[in-house]
Design a protein that fits this description.
The complex is a heterodimer of chains A (about 260) and B (about 230). Chain A is of the alpha/beta class and about 260 residues long. Chain A has 10 helices and 11 strands. The chains are: A alpha/beta (about 260), B mainly alpha (about 230). The interface between A and B is medium-sized, with 15 and 15 residues. Bound molecules: adenosine-5'-triphosphate and magnesium ion. The site of adenosine-5'-triphosphate has 11 residues of chain A, from helix 1.
């Protein structure tokens, strides 16, 4: 069912997923997903509720591991290394592949401590100045100018849009390679949404980004590649402009034109 | 299953309006040739006046397209269809201008005696109109093959144009007093030749709706651009 030219050789594959199957207590949630997620690009994952987008995203940094009674088959290669291979250090993996969630979820602490949390846990502050890491991360998340005068303020006092950018700063503070975002703007107003999208464009120069979104215009605006999921399958994966101007699958067409799903 | 009934209805209205514009243009072309054949000045005046209706409908349709894009965020085939409609109504409106151009020539000709009986010119107009209708059918059915079949006929129109052109040149060389009248007929033929070219544009847009490919449909070498620019 999958149509893709994702396996072209002229690309920098950051994450290569090969024939991935996923089950929640023997209930299949993903079946036979193969996709190449490119470095320094934004890959959007779209599809109706329950089609497996979040499940898929969580497979990329093994966030599903904590759920009891799940089963994963197939391979997920990060820079060519299978992250499900025995002996994989999951803490290292989650440092390399960070996740931003739907609702901004800063810790009830200061802005500074939120960003410093990961570096402290990972011991990065032993080799670099923590304040520098925090500033660099807040700048990277396009939040520095708005919070620099009061880094001790409670993170929860920020606007939702600022909180979400703080969560992005928290992710990039541990110097990941891949950033996963699961509907990062669904709790944000249109301006805050555009600010996050703007930020994504800046971040993609340094990171590989995958974003799940229910906002079709967001996928069209912000991403370079788009994958369309349907009932646990990847129906079509192509350059975003192709998906939104002439998708090859009728199912994709029906979904993005609002006629199915 | 559809959850966009209102949007689908608007797309259908758009389709109907393009067809309506096309049929107005078709009528204008037919009447312009009738006015030419019969030297009917009042008909010519009517065609020129009615060209305003064609212009108005074109702008209305274009406005509808802009509104649909702004409000419905169309994608994929819907988007291609709307973009194609915007381009097609531009070509249709220009074809209307060509018909009005022929009507203007009829007014200029006034009561001068006819140079020769008109045979090839009405034939050209006939083919151009058949092409126009077929291109609109292809637009309705969004059928690429139908559109391609239409473009093949552009060649017939070009050949007729060249024939008329050569014949009128001969007239002018043999009797310089015919120059003005011959030039009028060449201008008429040129208008028809341009109309057929614009039908080809419509067909390109139909192919775009159907396939997503945006390309010029190649015409026979040398006939693509008329002798008059
Ligand atoms: N923890 C879980 N235990 C059991 N089943 C689950 C669990 N999480 C998700 N599922 C099921 O797996 C399927 C895919 O869910 P998933 O959350 O990945 O979809 P989604 O595409 O992210 O949907 P949404 O757009 O609503 O977020 C659904 O049928 C869902 O009910
Ligand atoms: Mg989800």
């Amino acid at each position: 069912m999958l149509t893709t030219n994702s396996l072209n050789s002229d690309i920098t594959a950051k994450v290569s997923v090969e024939n991935l199957f996923f089950y929640y207590s023997n209930q299949p949630a993903l079946s036979d997903i193969s996709i190449v997620i490119r470095d320094q690009k934004i890959t959007a994952l779209i599809g109706p509720s329950g089609c497996g987008k979040s499940t898929f995203l969580r497979c990329l940094n093994r966030m599903n591991d904590t759920i009891p009674d799940i089963r994963v088959e197939g391979r997920v290669l990060l820079d060519g290394q299978d992250i499900y291979a025995p002996g994989t250090n999951v803490v290292d993996l989650r440092q390399r592949v960070g996740m931003v969630f739907q609702r901004p979820n800063p810790f009830p602490q200061s802005v500074f401590d939120n960003v410093a949390f990961g570096p402290r846990v990972l011991g990065l502050h032993r080799t670099a100045n923590l304040a520098d890491i925090v500033e660099e991360s807040l700048r990277g998340a396009a939040l520095w100018d708005e919070v620099k005068d009061d880094l001790e303020q409670d993170a929860l006092s920020l606007s939702l849009g600022q909180q979400q950018r703080l969560c992005i700063a928290r992710v990039i503070a541990v110097r990941p390679e891949v950033i996963l975002m699961d509907e990062p703007c669904s709790a944000l107003d249109p301006i805050a949404t555009l600010e996050v999208e703007e930020l994504m464009q800046r971040l993609k120069k340094d990171y590989c980004i995958a974003i799940v979104t229910h906002n079709m215009q967001q996928a069209a605006r912000a991403s370079d590649w788009t994958g369309f999921f349907w009932l646990g399958e990847l129906v079509e994966f192509a350059a975003t402009q192709t998906i939104f101007t002439h998708p090859s699958q009728k199912l994709t067409e029906n979904y993005i034109t609002g006629r199915a799903g | 299953m559809t959850v966009r009934t209102a949007f689908d209805q608007e797309l259908q209205d758009l389709r109907d309006n393009v067809l309506r514009l096309g049929s107005m243009v078709d009528t204008a072309i037919g009447r312009s040739i009738q006015a030419l054949k019969e030297r009917d000045q009042s008909l010519a005046q009517q065609i020129i006046a009615e060209d305003e209706d064609i212009n108005a409908l074109r702008f209305k349709i274009e406005g509808d397209c802009v509104r649909l894009i702004a409000r419905q965020q169309p994608a994929a085939r819907d988007l291609r269809f709307i973009v194609a409609a915007m381009n097609i109504v531009l070509d249709l409106e220009r074809m209307g201008d060509h018909a009005a151009g022929i009507a203007t020539i009829v007014l200029r000709m006034g009561g001068e005696p006819p140079l020769k009986p008109l045979i090839d010119l009405p034939r050209m107009a006939q083919i151009a109109r058949e092409m126009l209708r077929a291109s609109l059918d292809a637009f309705m059915s969004e059928n690429e093959q139908e559109a391609m079949d239409v473009t093949g006929r552009d060649e017939e129109v070009d050949q007729l144009f060249n024939k008329i052109f050569r014949e009128l040149i001969t007239f002018m060389i043999e009797d310089p007093r015919t120059v003005t009248r011959a030039m009028y007929l060449i201008f008429c033929a040129h208008n028809l030749e341009r109309i057929a070219d614009r039908v080809t544009n419509i067909c390109e847009r139909v192919a775009f709706v159907a396939t997503g490919r945006m390309e010029e449909i190649p015409s026979e070498a040398g006939t693509e651009t008329g002798i008059i620019g």
